[in-house]
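We emphasize that the prediction below concerns an isolated chain of 456 residues; any contacts that depend on oligomerization or on bound cofactors are therefore not represented. The input was used exactly as deposited, without trimming of termini.
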Amino acid sequence: MRFVTHFESFFEIAQSVRKGSVTAEQRVALTLDDIQHRNDRYNCFTRVFADESIAAARVVDRKVAAGENPGVLAGVPFGVKDLFDVAGYVTTAGAKLRTNAPVGKKDAVVIKRLKAAGAILIGTLNMDEFAYGFATVNAHFGTTHNPHDLSRLAGGSSGGSAAAVAAGLVPLTLGSDTNGSVRVPAALCGLWGIRPADGAIPVEGTFPFAEILDTVGPFTRTSSELAAAYQILSQSPDWGSSSSPRVARLGGWFANNASDEVTAAIDHVMSCLGTNAIVEMPEAETARSASFLMTAAQGGALHLETLRTKAMEYDPAVRDRLLAGAILPTAIYLRAMAYRKYFRAKIKSLFEQYDILIAPTTPMVAPKIDEATIWMDGKAVSARAHLGIYTQPLSLAGIPVVSAPYYRPQALPIGLQFATAPGREAMLFKLLHELEQAKVLRSSPPPINEKPDEHA
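Result of the prediction step, given as a token string:
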């Protein structure tokens, strides 16, 4: 039977390449073959760099043969959301109207850092057009399907990045998170994903959405891989030991609209941590609105000139939202900006009481693709716009937030957010690793990958 990816960690891949039990070229060739046969199920990859990835793998193999250090990610295949610059290729940002834009002259900074660690770039991944959405429903490049149930959304806007890891096509991908675009698909696809603190991971070489809120972060299947990827991307120093954190769950806004199974997941996590502390995030709903307005205004301003001449080339759903943002009064935008400063001061004081705050990532499991709405406050609202109701307030805070998969094998994934103050990432990752070892948080392979491959 033809090779089918079996969810190796990138630690296992790199170790086998460094030891010489498999060459980087062999591992990349297997990945390319797997993508060729299985990507159509999920619609993750928009482009595959076959020749370039094989050439890069041979460089790694030459280093191994010469006794040189090939890097901690030697031979590890990875993919990137199609808004990261890749030298020699157009950065489409998920938009058909950019397919003839000038090609990139150099890789995004984060791609350079992964390549320097020995990782091999395989291709670019599907997304909501211009990163404006929580669904990865793209009018031009198609919808990405959730590997846990192909009839359901993968989340967005980094849905291709999440689905590629969840399906086992690659062990590591990069996405962007402005208002939840890493955390939402990580939750719906049962993965680990992080929105870093503002400025912790460089965004240079990425197509902007709303620059004041834009961040980039990785997707992985384990907390250890997430921590390792974060350190490489942020170039953080090695972490030492950290003290036990003070933990609380976020109530109020973060409890409203949550399904019973999501609430039960947080109840269980809090029980395992031996605390029932609940804290209110001040003015979370207002913070969500401010984040929403800032995103709309900056996105609309960025695209205004293009909208004037090429409006009909946009995804209709994205075009309408950008137009609405472009006509927002400047006074409203400035009020939202002023509120951001006030809100961040409030959050800083909250972290004087607690080290880690826990909340749902999304209010429910992945919605069906053919169901365009979700229920919020008793009303049907757009899933594309509202799956991030719990991620948007934390975006405005500018703090590091991990979406972690709650362990429930043979069931649709649930994601939980773990937020901390900048500088306490070591404490956060330590707690997450402990909960993963206890099988409270853990990624589960999607059932569909246990079935025989029809292409085998």
